[in-house]
Amino acid sequence: MKRNTWQRDAVREALGESDGFVSAQSLHASLKGGGSTVGLATVYRALADLATEGEADSLQQDGESLYRACTPNSHHHHLICRSCGTTVEIAADEVETWAQTVAAQHGFTQPRHIVDVFGYCPDCTRTAN
Fold first, then answer.
1. How far apart are CA 110 and CA 116, in angstroms?
2. Which range has the worst mean pLDDT, 8-17, 48-57, 96-105?
3. Which one of 12, 81, 83, 112 is least enclosed by Cβ atoms within 10 Å?
4. 70 and 15 in contact (C-beta within 8 Å)?
5. How far apart are CA 77 and CA 60, in angstroms?
6. Residue 76, Cα to own-chain centre: how many angstroms?
7. Considering just the CA atoms, what is the radius of gyration of the chain in Å?
8. How far apart are CA 4 and CA 46, in angstroms?
9. pTM for this structure?
10. Residue 72 scores a pLDDT above 70
């Protein structure tokens, strides 16, 4: 675990105040707009570390990493709108069972997985129609 610095704490706090998933660049802009001197490279490192340590969810969308604060040590999955980015945490008990079963069938232990389902939220669907 990395040591806490004021920069890392600032990134963690800004991420916690953000709605949904955000890019490092938008989080940096938000910090900078609030008067912070945290550099963009530091924001990237802090977000990557927070994701590795389970304090942030991360996903790839259009080739860019996006991050969202999450409850540490909680495993969950997401429905993510491809248009507006709205994100809903979902239960996926069947996926959990499947992952454990498939791993065991192949002699693997302690399987980990990420499931993000992309589609269009009800609002974006209504707007498109």
1. 20
2. 48-57
3. 112
4. no
5. 14
6. 11
7. 17
8. 10
9. 0.68
10. no
